[in-house]
Design brief:
- This protein is α+β, with helices and mostly antiparallel strands.
- It has one domain: 2-Layer Sandwich (Alpha-Beta Plaits), CATH 3.30.70.20.
- About 25% of the residues lie in helices and about 20% in strands.
- It contains two helices and four strands, in the order βαββαβ.
- A two-stranded antiparallel sheet has the order 1-4.
- Strand 2 and strand 3 form a beta hairpin.
């Protein structure tokens, strides 16, 4: 599984990088960026799902 981020939907709330700073960061405008572009291990997957579930804009998807 991988993280897919729709930056057009991201409004910079920061929940993803607050909940999973090892997976997400932000650019100079506060828009989220994904730090891990490859396959997620089990721990990373749990944290990515937590971040996706807390994104108010539904900008994060976890999939193949």
């Amino acid at each position: 599984m991988k993280i897919h981020l729709d930056t057009a939907k991201c409004q910079g709330h920061g929940r993803c990088y607050s909940l999973a700073p090892e997976l997400f960061d932000c650019d100079d405008l506060g828009t989220a960026i994904v730090l891990v572009t490859g396959e997620l291990d089990a721990d990373q997957l749990k944290k990515a799902e937590l971040a996706a579930g807390n994104c108010p804009e539904y900008a994060i998807e976890i999939g193949a």
